[in-house]
UniProtKB/TrEMBL annotation:
It is found in: Nucleus. One of its GO terms (cellular component) is microtubule organizing center. Belongs to the RecA family. RAD51 subfamily. It comes from Sinocyclocheilus grahami (Dianchi golden-line fish). Keywords: ATP-binding, DNA damage, DNA recombination, DNA repair, DNA-binding, Nucleotide-binding, Nucleus. Residues 107-278 form the RecA family profile domain. Involved in the homologous recombination repair (HRR) pathway of double-stranded DNA breaks arising during DNA replication or induced by DNA-damaging agents. Bind to single-stranded DNA (ssDNA) and has DNA-dependent ATPase activity. Part of the RAD51 paralog protein complex BCDX2 which acts in the BRCA1-BRCA2-dependent HR pathway. Upon DNA damage, BCDX2 acts downstream of BRCA2 recruitment and upstream of RAD51 recruitment. BCDX2 binds predominantly to the intersection of the four duplex arms of the Holliday junction and to junction of replication forks. PANTHER family: DNA REPAIR PROTEIN RAD51 HOMOLOG 4. The keyword ATP-binding applies. This is DNA repair protein RAD51 homolog 4. The lineage of its organism: Eukaryota, Metazoa, Chordata, Craniata, Vertebrata. GO terms for molecular function: ATP binding; ATP-dependent DNA damage sensor activity; four-way junction DNA binding; single-stranded DNA binding. Gene3D superfamilies: P-loop containing nucleotide triphosphate hydrolases.
C-alpha cells in the first residue's frame, strides 16, 4: 500500500512523520469513506496556519472534538462514520458472563479428533473459536495427528478443512490411505473437503491468512460446505528464523500471524489447530518454542512425545500443558497407527457439532 495519491506538495512534505503516516494508512485501508474526506481532513485539520499538527495519529483523530473537526472539514456525517468504524474495529466492549455462556451454547461446536484419548485430554475435542497448539520434537507425531484430525473432520463430520502446509509435510497418498481404511468407496469425496495451501515464508503465510479472512472462507462456505477447521503445520517453520537477537521485525510478524489466527477463529467460528517445535528451559524441561509472546496465543496446548522402549514405534503420549478447562499435566497414551473412531458422547453445557446439526 502506498500514498502516492497525495498530490499536494505541502502534504507530501509532511508525510515524513511516522505516526501520521501510520494513521493515514490505517484510515485509507479500513475506511470506505476515505476517498471523500482525505483531502479536506489533511488540508484543513492537519496543517493549520501556525504549522502545528493537530492530528498525528488515529488516536488523536478519535479523541478530538468531532464538532470542531466537522466544522473545519465540512464533512460532519463522514467524520462520524469514520469514528464509528474505527471504534467498532479496535475498541473493547464489556461483555457479561451470562452473554459469554449464551454464546458458548449457541455458537460453539466441539470437533472430535477421532481419537478417544486425545478427545479426553481436550475435554471432548477441538473447540471452534479457539486456537489449539500441538508441540513436540521432530518425529513426535504432530503432522500425523493433523492428518488424522483432518481426515476425521472431513469424513466423519462432513466438514471442510483448510490445511496450510509450511514445510512440505503434506502427503496426499497418506491421506488417501487413511480414508480408504474408513470408507473404501467414498474417499475421493472426503479428500475433496481437505483444501491444502502451501506457503514457505512468513509473508506468504500472512497473505494466505489475510486472503482467507477477507474472502476465502466465505467462498468456501457457499460453494463447498461449512469450513470448521483451519490447520497450520507448522507456525515455527516460518517464524523461528525471524526471531532472536535484534530482529524486531520478527516479533512484529509473529504477533501479526497470531492476530490473524485469532480473528479467523473468532469471526468465523472455526477451530484452529497449529503445530510448534519445542525447546528446553533452564531445568532441561521441554517447552513450546517461539518465546514468551507466543505462549499466550493458544487456548490449549498439548505436548507430544514418543514412547521410548515401546513394542511399537507409533506409540505416543500427549501431555496437557495449557488449558482453561482441564487440570494441566494430564497425560494420555495413544497409537498413531490405530486412530480409533469410538462413539463420542455429549457433555452438559456443550454441544457436539453432529448433535447441533440434527433437525
Amino acid at each position: 500500500m502506498n500514498i502516492a495519491f497525495f498530490e499536494n506538495k505541502k502534504i507530501n512534505k509532511n508525510l515524513t512523520n511516522p505516526k501520521l503516516l501510520n494513521g493515514l494508512l490505517l484510515l485509507k485501508h479500513y475506511c470506505p469513506l476515505w476517498e471523500s474526506i482525505k483531502y479536506s481532513l489533511l488540508h484543513d485539520c492537519m496543517w493549520p496556519c501556525n504549522n502545528t499538527c493537530l492530528i498525528l495519529s488515529v488516536e488523536d483523530f478519535v479523541s478530538c472534538n468531532p464538532e470542531e473537526l466537522a466544522r473545519k472539514c465540512s464533512l460532519s456525517y463522514a467524520l462520524v462514520a469514520v469514528r464509528r468504524v474505527l471504534l467498532a474495529q479496535y475498541t473493547a466492549f464489556p461483555v457479561s458472563g451470562a452473554d459469554l455462556y449464551e454464546e458458548l451454547l449457541s455458537s460453539t461446536a466441539i470437533l472430535s479428533t477421532g481419537n478417544p484419548s486425545l478427545d479426553k485430554l481436550l475435554d471432548s475435542g477441538l473447540y471452534t473459536g479457539e486456537i489449539t497448539e500441538l508441540t513436540g520434537s521432530p518425529g513426535s507425531g504432530k503432522t500425523q495427528v493433523c492428518f488424522s484430525v483432518a481426515v476425521n473432520i472431513s469424513h466423519q463430520l462432513k466438514q471442510t478443512v483448510f490445511y496450510i502446509d509450511t514445510k512440505s509435510g503434506m502427503c496426499a497418498n497418506r491421506l488417501l490411505q487413511m480414508l480408504q481404511t474408513k470408507t473404501p468407496n467414498m474417499e475421493e469425496q472426503a479428500l475433496q473437503k481437505i483444501k491444502v495451501f502451501r506457503v514457505f515464508d512468513v509473508f506468504s503465510l500472512l497473505a494466505c491468512l489475510q486472503n482467507l479472512r477477507s474472502n476465502g472462507l466465505q467462498r468456501a462456505s457457499v460453494g463447498g460446505g461449512s469450513v470448521k477447521a483451519l490447520m497450520v503445520d507448522s507456525v515455527s517453520a516460518v517464524l523461528s528464523s525471524m526471531l532472536g537477537g535484534k530482529q524486531n521485525e520478527g516479533m512484529s510478524l509473529l504477533m501479526q500471524v497470531a492476530g490473524e489466527l485469532k480473528m479467523i477463529a473468532k469471526d468465523f467460528n472455526i477451530a484452529v489447530l497449529v503445530t510448534n517445535h519445542v525447546t528446553k528451559d533452564g531445568n532441561g524441561h521441554l517447552k513450546a518454542g517461539l518465546g514468551q509472546s507466543w505462549s499466550h496465543v493458544s487456548r490449549t496446548r498439548v505436548l507430544l512425545r514418543r514412547v521410548e522402549d515401546a513394542g511399537t514405534s507409533s506409540l505416543r503420549t500427549a501431555t496437557l500443558t495449557k488449558s482453561s478447562r482441564q487440570a494441566c499435566h494430564l497425560v494420555e497414551e495413544f497409537d498413531l497407527c490405530h486412530w480409533s473412531e469410538e462413539r463420542r458422547t455429549s457433555i452438559s453445557g456443550k454441544r457436539k457439532l453432529e448433535e447441533r446439526s440434527k433437525p
